[in-house]
């Protein structure tokens, strides 16, 4: 089955539309084991390390089944980089989805218009019909996935499921056939229900926030230093299954509403609302501390950090901010900071 | 003729009047506080005309940040912001503003006062919105932001139609916001007057720019870098139009007399990006090579009425709709494909020998795509290009010696192409 690649620093791309058009949505992730040599010819070295890595992979060659790319607006590098993708990648279908940075009614109308345009262009390019019925079916399928992930996610705070294992699972779901994903998640849930807590109880329970970290080895690295990620507000995490899309509404409107109502990314406005979400989750899950990790040069996360730091200081909730380059060797340099954080909390 | 010769190799006499005009802008801000008139911070690319139309005094922190840099205060302010936790990698205008406000800097140092409200837009860069979010929260003032959808190289006309509608709806919402915050009513007549002044100001600026096509070029960056500020801060007022007309007349006189801004014009260059306000002397050093910058997309971009679909009648009769379309077609943020074509056309029209591309460490949206722009200009159009890595407001990221060596080599290349 053919696939549509998703270039999205958040999770604002309506996968249901891609499914309704008859494709597998495949979110693109980075590979920290490669150097962005070719991408460096297009993007300056002081720009987002993650998107540079994605471009590198795209230039080297994407999955052979990918027939198109949807790039969704995250920060204002994404539209500029999309233009570079247009120059470097030879695919028939390339669409930039202007996920609005505001979240009011006017933005909602605009997002609906942009999704309709996406549908029109998919229909034109691939001679397919993306009917409301098919989108509704896809919404049901995705809601099933969301419900399963919501349930499985809870086993992190029960100390049954490692944060890294869950991270890998969400990543896999974002790349495979969604019917296969349902089977995978049902099996995982069944397994979880029979398992007892095996994670070391002395591990510090933390919440993870910041850039949409996609290297599961980084999560494992944190765990090995004595932490368990019990909750997060990331795209490879709770933002992907925050709520359910309303199955009774007009489907495109329901999708747009769903995406604008879920917790805000640092790339959207007002990103300071992130504080309320993080605080609520941190309290609900009784975390020992909050870990805010920014990819190097991830400006939106860098802007929010001093505000979050101050707010969590007022609440006396331990908070650690670190910047990471997209290179596994660099993780080791962070061990002292993580160890000090573990001692504080 | 003798009068003209005196101006030779120097800025236009008329440009000296800029100090008065900008002085009046800062006095108007002080007066607004004394009179209790509402004030607003606005980011570049915002519809400043709408503030004037609603009798709100605009203040542009970016403009203030350049003052800090020119007065050699920016590094101090940037370091204050960094001590507050703002990364070394963030926008230096933003950090200059944070440091200046935190240390209660005077306007002469680049400080700026607490406004009644803030207006931001991501038309140029989303970090503008982040910046004002930080400061609006600190100052406890309302903040309105305008989301401008991003036009990319394959955006269709059908998309532009609903993009424009989205912006218009927000602009009408902004009027409601201003009415609520200030208690002022929207006055169509006043909006028309402001729009007309803005249009006229931009048209004279474009006329000035057209004179720069002449060989030798009558105007250098000594006139345009500073000359830009009225377009930026006062679109909608009458006073700067008079100044621009004086600049135009003087430049025209130079053209008529065959006199250039530079005594021996050898090489005509284009400079892409925001200048390094802390080290403007760099631009004068080009003169020793007989090189003059004859076009800067940055300073031209602010004469916003460049979209051929937008007529004066539209600007006067339907200012909101016209503004909505203009906000999507701002020269500084053209999509890559349009940017390449526009550069190539400009190089031809302005008879440019080479292009300097400022990879600005503080402006990632602008520097993203710069390498491809360079590649296509060189490979497809045979236009020599040089990428310069620096920062508009942070002198720590400016290596004068390295830059000097780069320029020397670039000029050598241009010389060889002549032979």
List the topology elements:
The complex is a heterodimer of chains A (345) and B (419).
Chain A: E1 3-8, H1 15-20, E2 24-27, H2 49-60, E3 66-72, H3 77-88, E4 93-97, H4 105-126, H5 132-157, H6 163-173, H7 178-194, E5 204-210, H8 216-224, E6 227-232, H9 251-261, H10 274-284, E7 289-295, H11 299-314, E8 319-324, H12 328-331, H13 335-344
Parallel strand pairs in A: 1-2, 1-3, 3-4, 5-6, 5-7, 7-8
Helix pairs in contact in A: 2-3, 4-9, 5-6, 5-7, 6-8
Chain B: H1 2-7, H2 18-35, E1 39-42, H3 48-53, E2 57-59, H4 61-70, H5 74-83, H6 92-102, E3 117-121, H7 127-139, E4 143-146, H8 157-182, H9 188-211, H10 221-233, H11 239-256, E5 267-272, H12 281-285, E6 291-295, H13 297-301, H14 312-317, H15 319-328, H16 336-349, E7 354-360, H17 364-367, H18 370-381, E8 385-390, H19 400-418
Parallel strand pairs in B: 1-2, 1-3, 3-4, 5-6, 5-7, 7-8
Describe the structure in your own words.
The complex is a heterodimer of chains A (345) and B (419). By secondary structure, chain A is an alpha/beta fold. Chain A has a domain of 129 residues: Rossmann fold. In chain A, 48% of the residues lie in helices and 14% in strands. Chain A has 13 helices and eight strands. In chain A, strands 2-1-3-4 form a four-stranded parallel sheet, with helices on both faces. Chain A has a four-stranded parallel sheet with strand order 6-5-7-8, with helices on both faces. The longest helix of chain A is centred in the middle third of the chain and has 26 residues. The model of chain A has no long low-confidence stretch (mean pLDDT 97). Chain B has two domains: 149 residues, Rossmann fold (3-Layer(aba) Sandwich), CATH 3.40.50.11890; 158 residues, Rossmann fold (3-Layer(aba) Sandwich). The N terminus of chain B is likely disordered. Chain B is globular and about 65 Å long. Chain B is an alpha/beta fold. In chain B, helix 5 packs across helix 6. Chain B has a four-stranded parallel sheet, with helices on both faces. A four-stranded parallel sheet of chain B has the order 6-5-7-8, with helices on both faces. The interface between A and B is large, with 49 and 50 residues.
